[in-house]
Amino acid sequence: MPKVSVIIPIYNVANYIERCACSLFEQTLDDMEFIFVDDASPDDSIQILQETLSLFPQRKSQVHIIHHSTNLGLTAARNSGLEMATGSFVAYCDSDDYVASDMYKLLYEKAIQEKADVIYCDFFMIYSSHNEYYSTLNEHKDKTVFLKQYLLQGWNVLWNMIISRKLLLTNHLHSPKDITFCEDFYLSVRVLFYANRILKVNKALYYYNRVNVSSIVHSLYEKKKENDERKTYLDTIDFFDKNGVLTDFKKEMSWRILKNKQNLLLNPIQHQEFMNIYPESRKHIMSCPVSFCNRKMKCFMWMLTHHLRWPLLGILYLRKILGR
Question: In the chain, what is the greatest distance between 2 CA atoms, to the nearest angstrom?
Fold first, then answer.
């Protein structure tokens, strides 16, 4: 059984796949499995991958390439890879990103030594002119506290961690089929909820590409993003409720809902829609962090939910006249 299975969806990444594949094949962890999922990519990404693989003959037997006849999207590609994975741990890597040569060795060895279900690390954001170090959450012995903090951080991702495959299979965890944005939040929250032990390697080992404007996330329409995000949050609220822990996370999830639906305030036609989306969130307007909703938007929310819609309409009209 391989120690780590890495799942790499491929779509339109001809400019990046060689760098990504090299960083994977150069891993210092020998016993690995690499599952590339060709999601009907229209370019020559797969040809470049195969040419790159020819430079690493020792890895050839560890590589599987799955082909989708039609483009099914990132989550379907990840699920196809998970179905084939046989490793003790599973990792997800985006094909326009790359990883440090010792990433999976460091994460795997700590997981084994500490008997952890999930091990995660910091990462770099790669821009055209510079790199930025992103520090993820520190470990916390109280998983409820850790998960509350996780719900508040800006980056909820899968690719900076390895996850016990047994944990994924036992709890029937997979990427959601019907969303293409916020899918990492959906799965990572559930992974962390079920994990018995979550630990961190305090190094940046993953390099997240912020340059590729043709990637899936960057090409999504804004409305689609908002709808996917909202559905993910509402599904997660339902998940917490069914597991009897919603009380622990209601405030944090309400803040996320408020952040997601705040733009509805600016269009009077959508005010009722704002009111209808998870009404419980209204109780947490004034406590919502400014990193989620600024003071102006919180004031607008408070007015709408306290029978002051007409004054709010006046303010919105003035904003329109003044071009703000």
Answer: 70
Residue that wins the pLDDT comparison between 218 and 130 = 130
Among 182, 34, 23, CA closest to 100:
23
Q: 21: part of which helix (H) or strand (E)?
A: helix 17-25
Instruction: Give the residue carrying structure tokens 């954001």.
Output: 125
> CA-CA distance, 324 to 318, in Å (whole number)?
9
The alpha carbon of 260 is separated from its chain's Cα centroid by a whole number of angstroms, namely 16
Alpha-carbon dihedral 36, 41, 45, 51, rounded to 10 degrees: 60
For residue 258 the two structure tokens come to: 């408020």
Cβ burial of 267 (10 Å; 0-12, 13-18, 19+) is: exposed
Q: pTM, whole model, 2 decimals?
A: 0.92
Give the dihedral sign, CA 21/26/27/30.
positive
In sign, the C-alpha dihedral spanning 151, 152, 158, 160 is negative
pLDDT digits (tens, 9 = 90+) for 117-157: 999 999 999 998 889 999 999 999 999 999 999 999 988 99
Residue from 296, 224, 302 nearest 260 by CA: 224
